[in-house]
């Protein structure tokens, strides 16, 4: 379990994340939703130690993250941010191999190679594993990065808007893979999402943020309700039930 | 395995260049000419390796392949120091005449400057690296302007001495200094070599590097200081030559197309040995000392730099 305790982040005098406490349960997909500037990405960055919190603490399985060595942390929690700027030209396989860095420090042994093979297999990238990343489409590149995170083999996988700039087909593909990671491999996935319908269909729990505070936190069915959404987005959003999916029809509200 | 073959080809070329320089036209002068040439070759190898290493590391840290560590202002600081010494103490003073004293003094001043500079800048967390570089540029320009001002006032004869220091030269390298530099460079690069794998991860960007368990901020700090010290040693040994690193680092990226720092750095080091030793041979035998190596390097480097800029702007 990841326990977030009273995290606060200030940019100048503005509180971007204000006294946030959340529990993230094992073996589930938890989605962070909320309007732009709600502090979702900042919160995720602090949980994954990309950003230092001003106050508060994060406990991973009851260990304070500040007391964990960076390398130990990277064997338990992985984070994938939305922009993946790179200065070097890598093939998919080389990128995925970097996922083993916390274990192998760059010298891959047989077991590492096996994990890399599995991760590539899992993301269905086998026949293009020797292509260069800059030759790939956005969806393929995103899958390559997720494969790297899978090769990292952490219990907790945090993703910051992984569906950004992806079309419907690739978005669905990625979300299905994340679901499989949880259901088949027992991972815990935390994801920042913009499209509440993806959150509704794929996540077990939803945490809604607004102006740096948690406004809603609960199982998906409880959050995907017109009243709750009104509070989060200030919009009247009708909800339609279709094939066991709760779909928010927000386009003309 | 192809990278290893390429490395061997380069090593062969470097050995050939060294052999040519050492034995060409020797006329049996094994006692006199050979040791003197040997010291020069040795100095070129050391400078080449130090600058290649510092430049590749610096470019990885800054995520920018058209920067050189000279942007930190160390070259200008070296020139300022030499100008100040000659201006206030005169060219006959021990700090100018005695090469060892001058060498150690230069290194000390540059290293202390770099440490103070980083100490001040790293006090605040998450200071963006470009801010640091910007300050480096401003300080470099400032040092340069002060040097120019003093050089204008200086006695013309004394200015000759200053001018002599303005260009890197391997023609009168002191043998003892070469040994001292060798010691420092071997120790520093030896200690830093195990960071190569972490540097590979660093080129994936900060977020990915931190995700993979690299202590990003500490590594960047350590590597910046290392680059500064290596540059300081190379500059104190032969004069300002940092621009050279830009050429060899980029040639190495193009030649190897690898993300592995151990290969790229080794490649850049050997390329710089080829360029320096080969270039020095050309200076001595084709131009018969009518020009200096650093003039040629700056000319070729400048042309190559423009080519890189055009290439980068086209790829966007």
From TrEMBL, chain A:
<dbReference type="GO" id="GO:0005524">
    <property type="term" value="F:ATP binding"/>
</dbReference>
<dbReference type="InterPro" id="IPR003439">
    <property type="entry name" value="ABC_transporter-like_ATP-bd"/>
</dbReference>
<keyword id="KW-1003">Cell membrane</keyword>
<keyword id="KW-0813">Transport</keyword>
<keyword id="KW-0472">Membrane</keyword>
<dbReference type="InterPro" id="IPR017871">
    <property type="entry name" value="ABC_transporter-like_CS"/>
</dbReference>
<keyword id="KW-0547">Nucleotide-binding</keyword>
<feature type="domain" description="ABC transporter">
    <location>
        <begin position="2"/>
        <end position="236"/>
    </location>
</feature>
<dbReference type="Pfam" id="PF00005">
    <property type="entry name" value="ABC_tran"/>
</dbReference>
<protein>
    <submittedName>
        <fullName>Iron ABC transporter ATP-binding protein</fullName>
    </submittedName>
</protein>
<keyword id="KW-0406">Ion transport</keyword>
<dbReference type="InterPro" id="IPR003593">
    <property type="entry name" value="AAA+_ATPase"/>
</dbReference>
<keyword id="KW-0410">Iron transport</keyword>
<dbReference type="GO" id="GO:0006826">
    <property type="term" value="P:iron ion transport"/>
</dbReference>
<keyword id="KW-0408">Iron</keyword>
<dbReference type="GO" id="GO:0016887">
    <property type="term" value="F:ATP hydrolysis activity"/>
</dbReference>
<dbReference type="InterPro" id="IPR027417">
    <property type="entry name" value="P-loop_NTPase"/>
</dbReference>
<dbReference type="InterPro" id="IPR051535">
    <property type="entry name" value="Siderophore_ABC-ATPase"/>
</dbReference>
<keyword id="KW-0067">ATP-binding</keyword>
<dbReference type="GO" id="GO:0005886">
    <property type="term" value="C:plasma membrane"/>
</dbReference>
Automatic annotation (TrEMBL), chain B:
<feature type="transmembrane region" description="Helical">
    <location>
        <begin position="289"/>
        <end position="310"/>
    </location>
</feature>
<keyword id="KW-0472">Membrane</keyword>
<keyword id="KW-1003">Cell membrane</keyword>
<keyword id="KW-0812">Transmembrane</keyword>
<keyword id="KW-0406">Ion transport</keyword>
<dbReference type="Pfam" id="PF01032">
    <property type="entry name" value="FecCD"/>
</dbReference>
<dbReference type="InterPro" id="IPR000522">
    <property type="entry name" value="ABC_transptr_permease_BtuC"/>
</dbReference>
<dbReference type="InterPro" id="IPR037294">
    <property type="entry name" value="ABC_BtuC-like"/>
</dbReference>
<feature type="transmembrane region" description="Helical">
    <location>
        <begin position="78"/>
        <end position="96"/>
    </location>
</feature>
<keyword id="KW-1133">Transmembrane helix</keyword>
<comment type="similarity">
    <text>Belongs to the binding-protein-dependent transport system permease family. FecCD subfamily.</text>
</comment>
<feature type="transmembrane region" description="Helical">
    <location>
        <begin position="175"/>
        <end position="193"/>
    </location>
</feature>
<dbReference type="GO" id="GO:0005886">
    <property type="term" value="C:plasma membrane"/>
</dbReference>
<feature type="transmembrane region" description="Helical">
    <location>
        <begin position="38"/>
        <end position="58"/>
    </location>
</feature>
<keyword id="KW-0408">Iron</keyword>
<keyword id="KW-0410">Iron transport</keyword>
<feature type="transmembrane region" description="Helical">
    <location>
        <begin position="103"/>
        <end position="122"/>
    </location>
</feature>
<feature type="transmembrane region" description="Helical">
    <location>
        <begin position="128"/>
        <end position="154"/>
    </location>
</feature>
<keyword id="KW-0813">Transport</keyword>
<dbReference type="GO" id="GO:0022857">
    <property type="term" value="F:transmembrane transporter activity"/>
</dbReference>
<feature type="transmembrane region" description="Helical">
    <location>
        <begin position="6"/>
        <end position="26"/>
    </location>
</feature>
<feature type="transmembrane region" description="Helical">
    <location>
        <begin position="224"/>
        <end position="251"/>
    </location>
</feature>
